[in-house]
Design brief:
The chain is mainly alpha-helical. It is built from two helices and two strands; from the N terminus they run H-E-E-H.
């Protein structure tokens, strides 16, 4: 009986950890969703946007860069906004 009780506690602890991890994942997805929606809205409004390149320099997004960023934001929205 004691062994069964230990096994059950271990299973319960594992389930609790899985639930906590799922809650953390859901929170991260919701945050990513909100950020992606805001970024897409800013891009769609035509605001002047910059990004930092590999050399650490700021570069202004041209139409091609804006389209790429919009596509990235849409893919995040598709995966995280359920």
């Amino acid at each position: 009986p004691e062994l069964d009780a230990r096994r059950q506690r271990a299973v319960d602890e594992q389930l609790a950890q899985q639930r906590q991890q799922q809650e953390r994942d859901a929170t991260v997805r919701a945050d990513n969703c909100g950020r992606a929606r805001a970024h897409l809205a800013a891009l769609a409004e035509g605001q002047r946007m910059t990004r930092t390149n590999a050399q650490g320099e700021r570069e202004v997004l041209d139409d091609k860069g804006r389209a790429e960023e919009m596509q990235r934001a849409r893919s995040v929205i598709a995966s995280d906004c359920r």
